[in-house]
Amino acid sequence: MKEFFELRGELNKNKTLTLQIAGFLILVIIWQLTSMFIGSNAILPPPLNVITAFHELHFNDFLLYNASISIKLNLLGFLEAVLIAVPLGFILGLFPLFRELFGKPIDALRFVPLTALTGLFIAWFGIETNMKVQFLAFGIIVYLLPVVIQRIAEVEKVYPQTSYTLGAVKWQTIKSVYFPAVIAKVSDDIRVLTAISWTYIIVPEMINQNGGVGAMIFKSARQSRLDKVFAILIVIVIIGFLQDRLFKWLDKKLFPYKYI
């Protein structure tokens, strides 16, 4: 019986992979037909042109080096955002006084157009790497902080009440009840929200254009090299996918009980 379920699971995985490959091929065919219908590489380059652009990007534009710069910025901004948003979220979520004082202003930050704040970050942090990290970190914080507060509110009251009944004090309840329950859920939210920094990375990297895939996209677009633009976008998607898989793997290692 065990072998039967393992075989069925393997067949389902193979079926899913086959459908994913088929879907990818369908999209490529639609892309090719659309580019042929438009008939202009300056509007929509065909897939083959995008593939050949990788050679030029690698040898002439140092694609791997620029990608490493963007990955570094992304991870630094992500790490700083987590280190700030998670503790602050626990303070606001667990202590009503702080939540009443600052809850609404923090919620309102989500509606601030981050790209409009570029000038402020330049004035505060200059135009070098630190400014870019702070910009990306802020872009994650404004979304992650309300999520942490919401996850704390979702903890069923029976668990902290049971903890108090057993004689636990406030900090023990936070450590034994709230922290494990909230972090296990927030880890999924963090994994999703890291994609935000990739959507904003072009903005800070455009400032002095001293490296990064965002600067490469801006330069390629100004040169009307849309084949390069599409190729770089594919690189960003691949990096984001691999990063997501890495965080998924870490989540399974840190919180294995979620996958039982």
Can you describe this structure?
The chain has 260 residues and is an all-alpha fold. The protein has two domains: 1-39; 47-259, MetI-like (MetI-like fold), CATH 1.10.3720. The chain is built from eleven helices and no strands. It has helices at residues 2-38, 47-59, 63-94, 96-108, 118-125, 129-153, 158-165, 170-200, 202-205, 213-222, 226-254. Helix 2 crosses helix 11 (226-254), helix 3 (63-94) packs antiparallel against helix 4 (96-108) and helix 10 (213-222) runs antiparallel to helix 11 (226-254). The two termini are 19 Å apart.
End-to-end CA span: 19 Å
Spans with pLDDT under 50 lasting ≥5 residues?
none
The helix content, as a percent range, equals over 70%
Tell me what portion of residues adopts beta-strand conformation.
under 5%
Query: What value does the average pLDDT take?
Result: 83
Examine the secondary-structure arrangement and name the CATH architecture of the largest domain.
Orthogonal Bundle
What do we call the CATH topology of the largest domain? MetI-like fold
Can I get a quick summary?
The protein contains eleven helices and no strands. The protein is mainly α.
